[in-house]
Amino acid sequence: MRxxxxxxxxxxxxxxxPHPISTTERTSDLTxxxxxxxxxxxxxxxxxxxxxxxxxxxxxQTIYVSDExxxxxxxxxxxxxxxxxxxxxxxxxxxxxxxxxxAAQAEIVAALLRSARRPGVSALQVDFDAVKSQxxxxxxxxxxxxxxxxxxxxxxxxxxxxxxxxxxWLAGLPIDEAVxxxxxxxxxxxxxxxxxxxGRVREPLCSGSLGLSVDEPWPRELAGRRxxxxxxxxxxxxxxxxxxxxxxxxxx
Length: 252
Description:
Elements: H1 2-15, E1 35-39, E2 44-46, E3 54-65, E4 69-73, E5 78-80, E6 86-93, H2 102-116, E7 121-127, H3 135-148, E8 155-159, H4 161-165, E9 177-180, E10 209-213, E11 226-230, H5 237-250
Parallel strand pairs: 1-3, 1-11, 2-5, 3-6, 6-7, 7-8, 8-9, 10-11
Antiparallel strand pairs: 3-4
Helix pairs in contact: 2-3
């Protein structure tokens, strides 16, 4: 545990994060910026972005659930501009047959809370492709995490396209948003073809945001939504500028 703590001290020094945000002063919105760059497990230098227009959602740790619960912290450095709003993302990897005991639930929640309590983090996002048999377990995790998170801190989840189109299990969860993942969809791609836009979103929790990738087509209907954008390669000033330009074009 001590080695993990030292890892994060070094990591957050590299991140260049601002002082801890007072959650009691936050609004109900997830971030002020409408464009959020996903920063996955790669070295990322994002100290050139305009924090008034762009936020960053970075992979903070991955939780592996099998016969035990293991966590792997982020090991790649990241830098952001001073004043950038930062969302901590936690990925959960869990096979369908994995243990769903109260003990496993408690360990997962404890790991999520560690990410939510990082200095400088303004929101928590959980990334878990829960199969149908895991949805009740996942909902329990989210409810317990919500109860124990810093007051006023937003809670976001990524969502499979089917969860937003016809599987209404998200309804009633204590989350601020569910982000429809409109890339790497596999068999679900017919639900959200670019020419159809985002019109198949029926779950209200999914209506305020979209998850997109720089290497796949974007839907036409982007106006008024918070956009999370993934890049399979490290971000550069040029790639960020292209995304910002595309977002601006969508407003016209």
